[in-house]
């Protein structure tokens, strides 16, 4: 199976599609709950389906409709799932305020991190040593697996839920999106001691809630999908010299007793104004001070957005999820209007529509890499 494409949602089914013909080749029932997220393992062997309290692991090549393994331990909707590059472990996040790491062979929980607030999304850094998650209290946290603690807490906009996060395949960028329709971008800079996060830009991408943000495999495009019934494609500019410090200095940790809930100190980068870009962020005695131009309401400049390449219109309701093809030339979207669509980005046209769900399609997973990763 060179191309694996599947969708799921509120009709309690998972559907596999022949990407080019649009034919549904297989349907798996998921009677326990709706399916919130899907993830295909890098080797194309397994599909993880995140539901209300459990994640079910299915064998993609088998006709067995039953899951190989059920991961139990969350007490709320599971909102995110991602596989380790070799499939040895899996990370999930949930409305129960936790991020959990699972052994994919045994189904046991290996680690657990507590946000203190419902968690909306989680991704794995390409270095496989950090995971990044976001929550409804408006924070993005970077978890260092070697140190077993939270190394950074980012607050893009005070008290505005962060709905989605994505990290570049080359580890160069971290992007987050929030409920106000804003996108926030940081450059990730590796130092001897830790990953440093340098603010790059922020910009309004949609007029309503952003459900998903994702960087393309070639890191040249950024896709956002929203409650405003559209998905948008943004060009990722090449980094300016100012974006990457020549000799990034290790940032101090907070000294005011702020912890991640398990006794570990965290570094906090606070970016309070949604329309102004800090050029420096200094920490002194546990406080965060910003040096930046003020937002438009105060007469200062707004930060430069990524150039908009395309607005994909045609869906009739919320566009919940999206996935890039391996060559970054196509995008699949899933929508509450029951349909998934395959878009050719060069022409901005729908080249295939996938019909079959009886209720909203809210998640999609695509793996069309020529070799298992």
TrEMBL record:
The keyword Membrane does not apply. Keywords: Repeat, WD repeat. Signal peptide: none annotated. WD repeats lie at residues 71-112, 112-153, 203-234, 312-353. Residues 281-293 have a biased composition (Low complexity). Transmembrane segments: none annotated. It comes from the Eukaryota. GO terms for biological process: regulation of actin cytoskeleton organization; TOR signaling. Residues 281-307 are annotated as: Disordered. One of its GO terms (cellular component) is TORC1 complex. Belongs to the WD repeat LST8 family. This is Target of rapamycin complex subunit LST8.
């Amino acid at each position: 199976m060179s191309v694996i494409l599947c969708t799921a949602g509120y009709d309690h089914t998972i559907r596999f599609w022949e990407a080019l013909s649009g034919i549904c080749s297989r349907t798996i029932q998921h009677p326990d709950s709706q399916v919130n997220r899907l993830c295909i393992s890098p080797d194309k062997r397994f599909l993880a389906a995140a539901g209300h309290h459990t994640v079910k692991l299915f064998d993609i090549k088998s006709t067995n409709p039953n899951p190989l393994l059920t991961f139990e331990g969350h007490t709320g909707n599971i909102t995110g799932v991602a596989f380790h590059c070799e499939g040895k472990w899996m990370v999930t996040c949930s409305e129960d305020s936790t991020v959990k790491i699972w052994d994919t062979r045994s189904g046991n929980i290996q680690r657990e991190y507590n946000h203190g607030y419902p968690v909306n999304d989680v991704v794995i850094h390409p270095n496989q040593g950090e995971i990044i998650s976001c929550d409804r209290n408006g924070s993005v946290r970077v978890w260092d697996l070697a140190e077993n603690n939270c190394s950074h807490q980012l607050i893009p906009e005070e008290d505005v839920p962060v709905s989605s996060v994505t990290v570049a395949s080359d580890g160069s960028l971290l992007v987050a999106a929030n409920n106000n329709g804003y996108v926030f971008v940081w450059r990730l800079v590796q130092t001897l001691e830790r990953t440093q996060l340098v603010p790059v830009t922020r910009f309004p991408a949609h007029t309503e809630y952003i459900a998903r943000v994702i960087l393309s495999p070639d890191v040249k495009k950024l896709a956002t999908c929203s409650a405003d019934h559209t998905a948008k494609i943004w060009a990722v500019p090449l980094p300016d010299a100012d974006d990457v410090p020549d000799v990034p200095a290790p940032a101090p940790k907070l000294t005011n007793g702020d912890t991640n809930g398990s006794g570990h100190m965290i570094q906090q980068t606070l970016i309070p104004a949604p329309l102004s870009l800090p050029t420096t962020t200094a920490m002194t005695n546990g406080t965060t001070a910003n040096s930046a131009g003020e937002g438009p309401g105060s007469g200062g400049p707004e930060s430069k957005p990524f150039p908009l390449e395309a607005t994909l219109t045609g869906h009739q309701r919320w566009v919940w999820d999206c996935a890039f093809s391996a060559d970054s030339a196509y995008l699949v979207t899933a929508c509450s209007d029951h349909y998934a669509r395959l878009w050719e980005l060069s022409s901005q046209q729908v080249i295939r529509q996938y019909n079959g769900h009886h209720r909203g399609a809210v998640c999609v997973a695509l793996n069309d890499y020529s070799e298992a990763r």
